[in-house]
């Protein structure tokens, strides 16, 4: 589908013709306002207007070499303009009716014009060319100058003959049409003219130096012929008619070759692309671009001899040897058995018989032929046919069998080598084509699926959902199959399970597997690769389209559109490096790093994304990039080296944070010194036990007269006298006295009291004040250089790249008896083997609110969940808990939050607060009692979930919510139906929060919850899209249509999807997007075929089908494999998707790290092991 680039609006009325200059960035147009306008494609504005015509302008064309424009008009004239000086240079008169067409000869000084006066005229403009050409440099009057006589003649008005012009003379008048002539064209090489008229005929004329005559005509059109032209390179004539057909004719025999017909649209014009094999035709509803035939040369490979058989452009069989890289002479000439003007579509080779099967032609004209190849190459021999018949596809499936498929009868026939049908199978009517499968099998290509079909057993072995697959390429080991459509590649394994799917914006042309199992494919202008995990990249940019046939080592063998083999060298280093990294073949990775030149931002970004920053470090020289990578792989040495080079505050801050995490006190100290973070430096010295440095910090604070810092260091040092002196210096004498008194320094206290002029009676101190110095926190170990962490080990790459090859191994470490105890000691610290516990809550809940112990000091000491201070029942619940919901019921909110974060990437816990409290309070009761003295007391009662008790009798707390899920979903449906969309979203979101914190007992319950989660995901996203659409301003028509289409794309209940489809259908119809309106109507009718709404849909579909155009191009393809980005509401494909972990909602990569808009609790692209619901 074409895309509108710009609109040019300056004509007053309809525009009838446009022509682009062959080399300059300009184009010319003519219209019903009698003017010719020249436009710039760079500024997108009209450069100037040429006036002079007195009626509608029918056609305009540029001269191939001169700065001229020719225009034909209903004022019965042909005018020639110089677009450089913007003047009319000739007016050709002689026609006595509308001139429908006029154009220059591509090489000679001739013009041809066609008129409704039933004539075609050929004009000689050699005089005009001579008159307006630049003067010769060989003039006797000087270099490039003119004599006075020539200059005088050039300035005089031209002398006119009886037709008004002597510079452009009528050379021939061609009469023969019975009605008006609409078009006439020159042949690009031969002295021929073709014309078409209202008499429904096409006439061919030949010219000589002295005369012109009619050669023959082409009859077949049933209405007027508005346009006709010669094929630029082939002996063909192409015409369009008001009979709604495009027709091609053999120039030599004047017989019809092919015909294409539209149902409702008349054709008006056809033009050929100046450089490539494309044509464009305009009709009542728009423009269509087409080829007359495919350009892909048919080919097949003999696997036993590694030879390529292919058909060249002369319909000859040739052979290419991959070993010698040599092309043989033609083996056979297939001109007599191939249909005229039809390319051979498929060939299949049988090595056991040295025979070949070819298929040529489309639809009912398709035929196949079966023949032997000569043993020796002696030239283009005529083949000896062993069998032939009608078919649209034909392939060998065994050494003694081949199959043919005829689309019109849906028959798959199995033939023996004598061309006898041994079996006939009727296939589904939606089978469009077949391609070879595994031995004895074929692939049935349907409109929306691909089926692996066993011909012998008449059995479907596998089905894959894929739209409009065209080609299939098996890997060399037959373990994988690549299926190609126009814009999609799907790779499946031999069980027909999808391995990878990807989307290309540029049309895919061919594909082949290399020796290592990597798929290389070609587009219109690139050769690319894709790995089985979806990673892809570009190998080579192409000048012309190529079709890959084989890839071996660093050699790629292709066929071009001329039917020739092109072999060239590629660099497979990048994709082999990625493949080795994915498969963890680290020795191969190391070899490639050492022997290849892997550079570039792409490979560095790939290594970072794949979790190998230490490898990326080997390729980077930029200090900031090296610093980022070093921090990512925790290499403090390189990070420190690069930080010294950059020397900026943010870099030092990041380094200090990483060093502190690793427990590297030396680097942390250096960073604090660089950033003058003196308070942090003092605390660091306290924790490491470096009292000498602490003393220096106190002296520095004293010198700086920083009372706060001095006081802090005094506390760290336990220097009471310095602390007291600090108080005195700060004027805080009461604090100084109280400190001295409480520290037992009586003499110093009396001295302070005396200096203040007070007595002991004037001072009031607490009664329980201690009279001994308070202890000061001391580090566990005296001075340590770094924290006592486990020894950090270099990765495999870091060891290898540093030259340390001793004991270098990439094997997994084995668990021995010696280290088994260490592993067990580490594991014992966790009650839940799956989920480690975070250090703190994600959101703050007060003690009075939760009635649970949240002692921070105890949590810092615990790796496990401390239950010693909990009641007996709660201790039991915690001990038996395996799900977040069970921990919430026991009051361990921090553990539950940590599990939800680890399992589902949940970061925002605020929306879950009410759900946490609901679970916590649902399992507890307080019963008020009165003792004998009448004193009121509270008796706590804990509600166990008996149903979830296991065989050993282990119980957990009651977690509510499962029984109300279905009712809540139904409530969401009702709100949807009532058009209360925002309330419906809140209900579905509530369901998600309930399920995320459930504690289930059976697999059936878990599966049911997963199904409900998928429903909630689809409905929330669908409703958010619809609410966004409703909020759009009226001017956003295109976005409105796109959002309506995406709304209909969501997987809603049929009754609800009807609403979405009706919205999309009516919006598309109002905006005159009739193609899309018809599609949405057809989808609507699949669900509801009767009733008033169905009747309206049928009317819309009928009206839309009668017009079948789209006024606005929107980004929506209902048949491609894509999903909606829940952030931007645009389509996303394949590797461009990142997901959150609760529902698996997809987003574009730019949303990574943000909170999901659907769940409002989970991080997009976050890491999670999967939500655990079953206890």
TrEMBL record:
This is Coatomer subunit alpha. The keyword Cell division does not apply. Residues 134-157 have a biased composition (Polar residues). PANTHER family: COATOMER (PTHR19876), COATOMER SUBUNIT ALPHA (PTHR19876:SF1). Gene3D superfamilies: 1.25.40.470, YVTN repeat-like/Quinoprotein amine dehydrogenase. Keywords: Cytoplasm, ER-Golgi transport, Golgi apparatus, Membrane, Protein transport, Repeat, Transport, WD repeat. The coatomer is a cytosolic protein complex that binds to dilysine motifs and reversibly associates with Golgi non-clathrin-coated vesicles, which further mediate biosynthetic protein transport from the ER, via the Golgi up to the trans Golgi network. It comes from Pichia kudriavzevii. Residues 131-157 are annotated as: Disordered. Its main location: cytoplasm. SUPFAM superfamilies: DPP6 N-terminal domain-like, WD40 repeat-like. GO terms for biological process: endoplasmic reticulum to Golgi vesicle-mediated transport; intra-Golgi vesicle-mediated transport; intracellular protein transport; retrograde vesicle-mediated transport, Golgi to endoplasmic reticulum. It comes from the Eukaryota. InterPro entries: Beta-prop_COPA/B_2nd (IPR006692), Coatomer_alpha_WD-assoc_reg (IPR047312), Coatomer_asu (IPR016391), Coatomer_asu_C (IPR010714), Coatomer_complex_subunit (IPR050844), TPR_COPA_B (IPR056176), WD40/YVTN_repeat-like_dom_sf (IPR015943), WD40_PAC1 (IPR020472). WD repeats lie at residues 8-49, 50-91, 92-126, 174-215, 218-259. GO terms for cellular component: COPI vesicle coat; Golgi membrane. Residues 803-1173 form the Coatomer alpha subunit C-terminal domain. Oligomeric complex that consists of at least the alpha, beta, beta', gamma, delta, epsilon and zeta subunits. It is a peripheral membrane protein. It is found in: Cytoplasm; Golgi apparatus membrane. The keyword Lyase does not apply. Residues 315-560 form the COPA/B second beta-propeller domain.
């Amino acid at each position: 589908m074409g895309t509108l680039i710009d609109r040019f609006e300056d004509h007053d009325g309809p525009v009838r013709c446009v022509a682009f200059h062959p080399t300059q960035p300009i184009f010319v147009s003519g219209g019903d306002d009698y003017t010719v306008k020249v436009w710039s494609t760079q500024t997108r504005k009209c450069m100037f207007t040429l006036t002079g015509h007195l009626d509608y302008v029918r056609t305009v064309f540029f001269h191939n070499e001169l700065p001229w424009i020719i225009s034909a008009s209903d004022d019965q004239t042909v005018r020639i303009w110089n677009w450089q000086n913007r003047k009319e240079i000739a007016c050709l008169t002689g026609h006595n009716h509308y001139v429908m067409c006029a154009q220059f000869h591509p090489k000679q000084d001739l013009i041809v014009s066609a008129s409704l006066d039933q004539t075609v005229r050929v004009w000689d403009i050699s005089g005009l060319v001579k008159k307006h050409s630049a003067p010769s440099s060989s003039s006797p009057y000087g270099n490039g100058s003119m004599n006075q006589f020539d200059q005088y003649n050039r300035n005089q008005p031209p002398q006119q003959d009886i037709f008004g012009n002597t510079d452009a003379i009528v050379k021939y008048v061609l009469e023969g049409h019975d009605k008006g002539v609409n078009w006439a064209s020159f042949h690009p090489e031969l002295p021929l003219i073709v014309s078409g008229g209202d008499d429904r005929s096409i006439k061919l004329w030949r010219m000589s130096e002295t005369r012109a005559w009619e050669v023959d005509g082409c009859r077949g059109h049933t209405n007027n012929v508005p346009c006709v032209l010669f094929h630029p390179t082939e002996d063909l004539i192409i015409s369009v008619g008001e009979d709604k057909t495009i027709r091609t004719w053999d120039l030599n025999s004047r017989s019809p070759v092919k015909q294409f017909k539209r149902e409702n649209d008349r054709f008006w014009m056809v033009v050929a692309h100046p450089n490539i094999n494309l044509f464009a035709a305009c009709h009542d509803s728009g423009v269509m671009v087409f080829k007359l035939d495919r350009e892909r040369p048919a080919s097949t490979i003999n696997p036993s001899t590694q030879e390529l058989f292919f058909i060249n452009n002369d319909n000859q069989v040739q052979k290419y040897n991959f070993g010698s890289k040599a092309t043989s002479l033609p083996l056979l000439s297939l001109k007599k058995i191939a249909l005229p003007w039809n390319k051979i579509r498929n060939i299949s080779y049988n090595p056991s018989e040295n025979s070949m099967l070819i298929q040529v032609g489309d639809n009912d004209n398709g035929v196949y032929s079966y023949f032997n190849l000569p043993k020796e190459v002696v030239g283009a021999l005529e083949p000896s046919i062993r069998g032939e018949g009608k078919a649209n596809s034909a392939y060998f499936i065994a050494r003694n069998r081949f199959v043919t498929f005829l689309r019109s009868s849906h028959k798959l026939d199995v033939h023996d080598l004598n061309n006898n049908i041994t079996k006939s199978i009727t296939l589904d009517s939606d089978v469009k084509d077949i391609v070879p499968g595994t031995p004895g099998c074929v692939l049935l290509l349907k409109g929306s699926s691909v089926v692996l079909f066993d011909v012998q057993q008449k059995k479907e072995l596998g089905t894959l959902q894929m739209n409009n697959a065209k080609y299939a390429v098996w890997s060399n080991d037959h373990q994988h199959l690549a299926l190609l459509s126009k814009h999609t590649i799907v790779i499946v394994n031999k069980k027909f399970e999808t391995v990878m799917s990807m989307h290309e914006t540029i049309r895919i042309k061919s594909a082949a597997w290399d020796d290592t199992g990597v798929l290389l494919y070609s587009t219109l202008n690139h050769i690319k690769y894709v790995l089985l995990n979806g990673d892809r990249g570009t190998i080579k940019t192409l000048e012309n389209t190529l079709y890959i046939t084989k890839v071996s080592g660093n050699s790629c063998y292709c066929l071009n559109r001329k039917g020739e083999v092109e072999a060239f060298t590629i660099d497979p280093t990048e994709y082999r490096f990625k493949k080795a990294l994915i498969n963890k073949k680290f020795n191969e990775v190391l070899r490639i790093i050492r022997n290849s030149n892997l550079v570039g931002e792409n490979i560095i970004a790939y290594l970072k994304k794949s979790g190998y920053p230490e490898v990326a470090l080997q390729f980077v020289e930029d200090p900031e990039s090296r610093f980022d990578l070093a921090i990512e792989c925790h290499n403090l040495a390189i990070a420190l080296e690069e930080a010294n080079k950059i020397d900026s505050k943010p870099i030092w801050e990041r380094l200090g944070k990483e060093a502190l995490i690793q427990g590297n006190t030396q680097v942390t100290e250096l960073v604090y010194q660089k950033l003058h973070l003196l308070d942090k430096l003092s605390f660091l010295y306290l924790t490491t036990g470096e009292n000498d440095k602490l003393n220096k910090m106190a002296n520095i604070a004293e010198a700086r007269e920083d009372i706060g810092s001095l006081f802090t260091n005094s506390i760290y040092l336990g220097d009471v006298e310095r602390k007291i002196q600090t108080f005195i210096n700060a004027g805080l004498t009461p604090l100084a006295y109280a400190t001295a008194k409480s520290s037992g320094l009586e003499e110093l206290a009396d001295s302070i009291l005396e200096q203040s002029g007070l007595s002991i009676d004037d001072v009031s101190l607490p009664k329980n004040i201690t009279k001994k110095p308070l202890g000061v926190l001391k580090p566990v170990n005296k001075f340590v250089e770094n924290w006592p962490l486990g020894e950090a080990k270099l990765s495999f790459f870091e060891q290898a790249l540093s030259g340390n090859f001793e004991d270098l191994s990439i094997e997994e470490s084995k668990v021995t008896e010696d280290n088994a105890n260490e592993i067990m000691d580490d594991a014992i610290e966790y009650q839940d083997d799956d989920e480690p516990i975070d250090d703190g809550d994600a959101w703050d809940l007060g003690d009075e609110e939760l009635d649970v112990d949240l002692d921070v000091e105890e949590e810092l000491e615990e790796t496990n969940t401390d239950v010693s201070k909990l009641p007996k029942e709660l201790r039991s619940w915690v001990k038996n808990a395996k799900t977040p919901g069970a921990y919430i019921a026991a009051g361990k909110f921090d553990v539950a939050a940590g599990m939800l974060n680890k399992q589902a990437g949940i970061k925002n816990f605020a929306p879950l607060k009410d759900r946490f409290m609901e679970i916590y309070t649902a399992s507890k009761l307080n019963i008020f009692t009165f003792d004998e003295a009448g004193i009121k007391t509270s008796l706590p009662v804990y509600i166990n979930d008996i149903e979830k008790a296991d065989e050993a009798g282990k119980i957990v707390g009651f977690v509510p919510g499962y029984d109300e899920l279905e009712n809540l979903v139904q409530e969401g449906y009702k709100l949807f139906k009532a058009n209360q969309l925002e309330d419906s979203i809140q209900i579905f979101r509530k369901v998600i929060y309930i399920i995320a914190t459930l504690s289930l007992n059976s697999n059936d319950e878990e599966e049911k919850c997963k199904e409900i989660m998928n429903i909630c995901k689809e409905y929330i996203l669908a409703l958010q899209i619809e609410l966004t659409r409703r909020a759009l301003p009226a001017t956003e028509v295109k976005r409105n249509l796109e959002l309506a289409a995406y709304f209909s794309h969501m997987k809603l209940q049929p009754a609800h999807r009807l609403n979405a489809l009706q919205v999309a259908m009516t919006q598309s119809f109002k905006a005159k997007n009739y193609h899309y309106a018809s599609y949405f109507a057809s989808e609507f009718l699949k669900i509801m075929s009767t009733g008033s709404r169905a009747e309206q849909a049928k009317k819309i579909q009928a009206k839309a089908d009668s017009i079948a155009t789209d006024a606005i191009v929107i980004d929506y393809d209902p048949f491609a494999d894509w999903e909606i980005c829940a952030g931007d509401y645009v389509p996303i494909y394949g590797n461009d998707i990142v997901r959150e972990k609760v529902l698996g909602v997809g987003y574009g990569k730019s949303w990574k790290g943000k909170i999901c808009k659907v769940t409002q609790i989970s991080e997009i692209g976050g890491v999670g092991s999967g939500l655990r619901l079953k206890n």
